[in-house]
């Protein structure tokens, strides 16, 4: 967020500010964007995750993030003018809104539900670690790559499209218990033929004939 807003000149000329003043402006901007975009998106996810469904929310989030990021990147020079800084901030706040009313929330819910019980903790840990690796790569990309902010936004939009394709392969878990999701109830309710035979044999009594 700092690099993107610095790129459009949101914080002014850094050479004419003290480090404390620059840090204050960055922290203030980030707090405003989070309060106006991220938190409302998170609260809406809590309210509607069992009404709309995890997959629909995740697809909607990825799709809207893609649209807003392409909108920011396609007209990046337009947003760079001082008169349009507020519009850029609103667009970016909507991006974070649909990040939290979307994959930023549902990707913490789905891994705890869709994996079988025997593998749930392990696979959930692997899934979380994969997400953290992606976050590290994203931060390092912005920090050290020579790519422009506009190109980086387009790259992020491409990552969202990949997220949409993977989301389409996931099962919907709305309104289902963990046993129903993994199919464990079906296994319990349908005993094998061998176990059924043994169960029937227990009720066979032999009578001696003298």
TrEMBL record:
Gene3D superfamilies: MFS general substrate transporter like domains (1.20.1250.20). Residues 1-175 form the Major facilitator superfamily (MFS) profile domain. GO terms for cellular component: membrane. Its main location: membrane. GO terms for molecular function: symporter activity. Pfam families: Sugar_tr. It is found in: Membrane. It is a multi-pass membrane protein. PANTHER family: SOLUTE CARRIER FAMILY 22 MEMBER. Belongs to the major facilitator superfamily. Phosphate:H(+) symporter (TC 2.A.1.9) family. This is H(+)/Pi cotransporter. It comes from Lolium multiflorum (Italian ryegrass).
């Amino acid at each position: 967020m700092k690099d993107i807003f610095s790129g459009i000149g949101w914080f002014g000329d850094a050479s004419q500010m003290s480090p404390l003043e620059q840090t204050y402006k960055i922290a203030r901007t980030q707090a405003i964007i989070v309060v106006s975009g991220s938190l409302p998106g998170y609260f809406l996810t809590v309210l509607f995750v069992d009404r709309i469904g995890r997959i629909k929310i995740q697809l909607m989030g990825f799709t809207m993030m893609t649209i807003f990021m392409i909108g920011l990147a396609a007209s990046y020079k337009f947003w760079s003018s001082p008169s349009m800084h507020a519009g850029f901030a609103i667009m970016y706040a909507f991006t974070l809104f649909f990040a939290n009313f979307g994959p930023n929330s549902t990707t913490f819910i789905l891994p705890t539900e869709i994996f079988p019980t025997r593998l749930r903790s392990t696979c959930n840990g692997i899934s979380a670690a994969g997400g953290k690796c992606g976050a590290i790569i994203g931060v390092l990309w912005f920090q050290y790559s020579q790519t422009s902010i506009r190109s980086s936004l387009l790259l992020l939009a491409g990552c969202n499209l990949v997220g949409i394709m993977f989301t389409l392969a996931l099962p919907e878990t709305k309104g289902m218990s963990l046993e129903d999701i993994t199919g464990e109830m079906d296994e319990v309710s349908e005993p094998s033929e061998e176990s059924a035979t043994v169960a029937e044999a227990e009720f066979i009594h032999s009578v001696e004939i003298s």
